[in-house]
Structure to design on (81 residues):
């Protein structure tokens, strides 16, 4: 593990206060193709990452398993500066 990639998070399970959580960002993801003269080249889709539309937590404590939606929108908002 690269220590520069490990950051302290302020997130805790709202129910049991566990610091072991699965974090999921849901984002729009756009793929665009150009149809030319009636033909589509499936290999030439253009990928565009989109806006984050939701950010969810699930407690990893087996006795809890609580799920919730964060008020903030992305994982970087949880990092303690
Ligand atoms: Zn919990």
């Amino acid at each position: 593990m690269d220590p520069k990639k490990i950051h302290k998070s302020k997130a805790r399970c709202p129910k049991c206060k566990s610091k072991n959580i699965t974090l999921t960002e849901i984002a729009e993801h756009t793929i665009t193709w150009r149809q030319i003269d009636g033909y589509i080249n499936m290999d030439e889709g253009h990928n565009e990452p989109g806006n984050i539309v939701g950010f969810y937590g699930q407690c990893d404590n087996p006795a809890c398993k609580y799920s919730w939606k964060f008020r903030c929108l992305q994982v970087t908002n949880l990092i303690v500066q």
